[in-house]
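Known limitations

Structure tokens in this collection are predictions and should be treated as such. Users comparing against experimental data should check residue numbering before alignment. To illustrate the layout, the record for Membrane protein is reproduced below. The input appears on top and the generated tokens appear beneath it.
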Amino acid sequence: MATSERPHGTFEDALALLVGGLLIALGLAILNAAGLVTGGMAGVALLVGHYLPRDLQFPPGLLFALLNLPFLVLAFRAMGSLFTLRTVAGSAAIASLSIAVGHTLELQVRDPALAAIGAGCLLGMGTLAFVRHGTGVGGIGVVTVWLSRKRGWNIGRTQLSIDIVILAAAAAMMPLVSVAWSTLSAGSMGLVTGLWLRPGRYAGFSPYTVDRGRLKEALKRSRRGPEDAS
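Generated tokens:
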């Protein structure tokens, strides 16, 4: 039986930004409290935060959003205006919720292993919520998509290569044991996104982020139901 594609509603998209933003904000806060980093733009934000002087410290989610700003032009060229607007909204949600988490929770990490795995899973699930609803999470992801379209580079391999560079940069300033836990966090985040972002695993999509032909066809199939589409 074929799976019929189901368009998301506006409320579902907005809720995905709220839930996904909260998960990412919590994951960043846990890693920051543990003194760890991870892959992707989240890892870059945490790494930059480690280099900043104490009087210039920002909540990790706010720093995450600020570092995403230069990539918006690339997002516009590679993915279009609607994807870019959603990405701006997602970054704003992450920044706002990160500030709220910083004012609400005082985190103390006693077990770096659980912190690394748990935060990686939170970041992975937050990324999943964003991507499933047509929203970009970080500039690194935009770069991988752009390189894939322009040069034919494999997105997974490009992302892995960038993550290795981020972790190598972390090794220059962090104890090796912290780099090891950070690698575990990046691995757990990659495992979550790898498992549930595979093509064909999900029937929902956000209208206005796909071409009109696919949207019309998907709407027809959703009205017929999966029985008629099989």
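For this record: The chain has one domain: 7-199. The first strand starts at residue 6 and ends at 7. Please report discrepancies through the issue tracker.
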